[in-house]
Amino acid sequence: MAESIKKNMLTRAGLERYEKELEELVSVKRKEVAEKIKIARELGDLSENAEYDAAKEEQGHIEARIAELTQMLKHAEVVSDDEISLDKVNVGCTVKVLDIAYDEVVEYKIVGSAEANSLENRISNECPVGAALMGRKVNDLIDVLAPVGIEQYKILDIQRTEI
Question: Considering the entire predicted model, what is its pTM?
Answer without folding.
Answer: 0.69
